[in-house]
Write a structure and sequence with these properties.
about 120 residues; 2 domains; about 0% strand; Transcriptional regulator
């Protein structure tokens, strides 16, 4: 997406928000507050849209580096999804297999594989 920025608007926005590479939690909190302010502003200017996009990119980079999401095992992912969705073992009978197969999969006695 290409945004058109008003040259007279952008320098003031840079001075106001001072976007920079985020290195600390305090800087991240400040960037999140600025992004939230811009996100909730009605009728943003193209310059404000550009600053918002820049802030979000900087926040995502910092958080991806600081809070990496570990790769889960298929079994741990299944348990997480069951817990998050309020799914019980009996709800998986017929989806995964018989009652015995579901029990083995949920209890980690049988591995989960693609067909």
């Amino acid at each position: 997406m290409t945004l058109t920025t008003n040259p007279s608007d952008y320098p003031q926005l840079l001075a106001k928000y001072q976007p920079k590479v985020i290195e600390t939690e305090v800087e991240n909190d400040r960037a999140i507050a600025s992004a939230t302010e811009l996100e909730h502003k009605a009728n943003r200017t193209p310059g404000e849209d550009t600053i918002l996009e820049l802030l979000v990119t900087l926040i995502e980079k910092f958080e991806d580096e600081q809070y990496p999401i570990p790769q889960g095992t298929p079994h741990s992912m299944l348990l997480h999804l069951m817990d998050a969705g309020g799914i019980k073992q009996e709800n998986l009978v017929g989806v995964i297999g018989s009652r015995g197969v579901v029990s083995e999969v949920v209890n980690g006695k049988r591995s989960i594989r693609r067909k």
